[in-house]
Automatic annotation (TrEMBL):
It comes from the Eukaryota. InterPro entries: PLipase_D/transphosphatidylase (IPR001736), PLipase_D_C (IPR024632), PLipase_D_fam (IPR015679). GO terms for molecular function: metal ion binding; phospholipase D activity. The keyword Endoplasmic reticulum does not apply. Pfam families: PLD_C, PLDc. One of its GO terms (biological process) is phospholipid catabolic process. This is phospholipase D. Its EC number is 3.1.4.4. Keywords: Calcium, Hydrolase, Lipid degradation, Lipid metabolism, Metal-binding, Repeat. It catalyses: a 1,2-diacyl-sn-glycero-3-phosphocholine + H2O = a 1,2-diacyl-sn-glycero-3-phosphate + choline + H(+). It is an enzyme of class 3 (hydrolase). It comes from Helianthus annuus. Residues 48-85, 354-381 form the PLD phosphodiesterase domain. One of its GO terms (cellular component) is plasma membrane.
């Protein structure tokens, strides 16, 4: 079941606005035993502008506890089954273009006119996904069944109760790691059958808010977008982006400042959303992101001021992005053609740099609880009546005393930080500490200088860069003190610009 981009028209070979290859996939499976359906996001007001954004796979496999039994296993997260998603932690720009899979999977949608024939940089991809077993895996499968039954012939589904050797007793599922998993969704009655008066499910938004309110030490977020709390923005308060996640984070920090307790939030987002950075839609989204940052730092700055202490808002909240820069290495792919002089493409090749696209939808709280799924932090994903989404919230418990076991979630965060920083510092064990915050902030600034400088200096596997804005002690978000107002190699404004054509409902 693939989201149907209704702007893709196979008759005239139009790939559609999103370039999902949905029509190609449908044609590929034609006359095979695979039942492939294109599923439009049913919405009475905007039939083509919202999407089925869920990304799940469910299969039956040999049970872990018995060689004679089978069990349901589901995969869930941010990774689309499409081109350009494969990558390694090196996130190479140029050096892998003459190797598999980049030869046949060159992907670069954030530089207009880019193609393999003209060479790199490719668009590196960072994402997160989860594997689920047990009852939660069944819940993920049930979500698929509900959506299918709403739009297609239910008799085409394989009924699980017909799998004779399927394991039904979850009490014998391997419990050494004691994972507790709950499935959340953003969806409405148009896409799934509902009972009673419930017409919209926003449980992903509710899960984020609840987890933030319960946080005690720190929050770590990776997300493709970060937009919300428009009713407290400086401008555009009626943009309709009312989700509470950014406000809840700012209020949590403010409460910790008032209590004189340490707390830290690290947020990793892409430099700009996918697409040409100077395009109206991308500039619009950057504008919303900038307004969100201003609102958050404003609330935190006010809390610092009220405390009477000499603290800084960035002692508590920091935004980062990921990027790479490679010096020339022998044996690289030599493109057949060159980009036009002076374009973003030409500049990126000359300076041998590009952002790493953050596509994760991940939040870790206190190394004890994790949310991971398909939902971005914006109104489209959190609304329930716009894009459909699915996610899981999970934690581990110690069976002996019911305390939280932080082993695997802590290990996952540490592995992500190692991937981004190339380091495993002892201070990473205490992410809420000011020492850790200062170290990450200084590293981000150092790597930004290397990334944005005129001289080509290899970043040597350290990809974390500070998001290029300046925050004052009062909590005002301004242009960088070095005067840079555009992303390197582009004419795209870092703070974005409000689009006069697109209504906010599409870009928030």
């Amino acid at each position: 079941m693939i989201w149907d981009d209704e702007t893709s028209l196979p008759v005239i070979k139009n790939k559609g606005v999103m370039g999902t290859d949905d029509e190609n996939a449908l044609a590929f499976f034609k006359n095979t035993k695979v039942v492939c359906k294109l599923s439009p996001r049913l919405n009475h007001n905007f039939p083509t502008m919202f999407t089925h954004h869920q990304k799940t796979i469910t299969v039956d496999t040999r049970a872990q506890t018995s060689s004679s039994k089978r069990e349901i296993i589901s995969f869930i997260g941010g990774i689309d089954l499409c081109n350009g998603r494969y990558d390694t932690e090196q996130h190479s720009l140029f050096r892998t273009l003459n190797t598999e899979p980049q030869v046949n999977d060159f992907y670069q949608t954030s530089i207009p006119g880019a193609s393999f024939r003209k060479g790199g940089p490719r668009e590196p991809w960072h994402d997160s996904h989860a594997c689920v077993i047990g009852e939660a895996a069944r819940d993920i499968m049930r979500n698929f069944e509900q959506r299918w039954e709403k739009q297609f012939d239910p008799s085409l589904l394989v009924r699980v109760n017909k799998i004779t050797d399927l394991q039904h007793d979850y009490s014998i599922t391997e419990t050494e790691r004691n994972w507790n998993v709950q499935v959340f969704r953003s969806i409405d009655h148009v896409s799934v059958p509902v009972n009673g008066n419930l017409r919209v499910e926003r449980s992903i938004h509710e899960a984020y808010v609840e987890a933030i309110r319960r946080a005690e030490r720190f929050i770590y977020i990776e997300n493709q977008y970060f937009i919300g709390g428009c009713h407290l923005w400086e401008k555009d308060r009626h943009a309709g982006c009312w989700n509470l996640i950014p406000i809840e984070i700012a209020l949590k920090i403010a409460s910790k400042i008032k209590a004189k307790e340490r707390f830290a939030v690290y947020i990793v987002i892409p430099m700009w959303p996918e697409g040409g950075p100077e395009s109206e839609s991308v500039q619009d989204i950057l504008h919303w992101t900038h307004e969100t940052m201003k609102m958050m730092y404003g609330l935190i700055g006010e809390a610092v001021r009220d405390s009477g202490e000499n603290w800084h808002p960035k002692d508590y909240l920091n935004f980062f992005c990921l990027a790479n820069r490679e010096d020339e290495n022998g044996g690289e792919y030599v493109p057949l053609y060159s980009p036009h002089y002076g374009t973003q493409y030409w500049n990126a090749q000359k300076h041998r740099r590009f952002m790493i696209y953050v596509h994760s939808k991940l939040m870790i709280v206190d190394d004890a609880y994790m949310l991971i799924g398909s939902a971005n932090i914006n109104q489209r994903s959190m609304d329930g009546q716009r894009d459909t989404e699915i996610a899981i919230g999970c934690y581990q418990s110690l069976e002996s005393d019911r305390q939280t076991n932080k082993r695997d979630i802590h290990g996952y965060r540490m592995s992500l930080w190692y991937e981004h920083t190339g380091q495993t510092e002892e201070v990473f064990q205490d992410p809420e500490s000011l020492k850790c915050v200062v170290m990450m902030r200084q590293l981000g600034e150092q790597m930004w200088q290397i990334y944005s400088g005129d001289e080509v200096i290899d970043m040597e596997g350290v990809h974390l860069v500070g998001y290029p804005v300046h925050v004052t002690q009062e909590g005002k978000v301004e242009d960088r003190v070095d005067g840079r107002v555009h992303f390197p190699d582009t004419k795209a404004q870092i703070k974005g610009k409000r689009c006069k054509v697109l209504p906010p409902i599409f870009t928030t």
